[in-house]
Amino acid sequence: MSTATPRPSVLFVCVHNAGRSQMAAAFLTHFAGDRVEVRSAGSAPADTVNPAVVDAMKEVGIDISAETPKVLTVEAVRASDVVITMGCGDTCPVFPGKRYLDWQLDDPAGQGVDAVRPIRDEIEQRIRGLLADLDG
């Protein structure tokens, strides 16, 4: 009989899935490895990940250059234990029994790497706290 607990699943959602949610997913994947199932999506996904976000993450040794923005689906929300929204407002579907967190973060859209760094660093700190909570 297996005593393994199922992996927690976390979904990060922002409007374009090109900045904040991509950074959050990358940090959680980087720190948690396969201990946590990680998804990210956007309510109105962009065509590409913000190049300044890619550069800012590269500075901390995480390569997200191959990532692409994904559309938010009801299935992704249903399959997640924790849903973390970042400025998507009412466009995020809400289901009973899920844990929802709303992280108020500046939007890196249209910003250079200098403006992205403090957003990246705040996301990293929040991810470390989330992981400690999940590992609890």
Quick summary:
The chain is an alpha/beta fold and 136 residues long. It has four helices and four strands, in the order βαβααββα. It has helices at residues 20-32, 51-59, 74-78, 113-135; strands at 9-14, 37-42, 82-85, 99-102.
Structural topology:
Layout: E1 9-14, H1 20-32, E2 37-42, H2 51-59, H3 74-78, E3 82-85, E4 99-102, H4 113-135
Parallel strand pairs: 1-2, 1-3, 3-4
Helix pairs in contact: 1-4, 2-4
Overall description:
The protein has a 4-stranded parallel sheet, with helices on one face. With 136 residues, it is α/β, with parallel strands linked by helices. Helices cover 37% and strands 15% of the residues. The mean pLDDT is 91. The protein is globular. It has helices spanning 20-32, 51-59, 74-78, 113-135, and strands spanning 9-14, 37-42, 82-85, 99-102.
The shape, in one word, is globular
Low-confidence spans: none
Strand order of the largest sheet: 2-1-3-4
- Kindly state the mean pLDDT as a whole number? 91
Number of helices: 4
Assess the beta-strand content as a share of residues: 5-15%
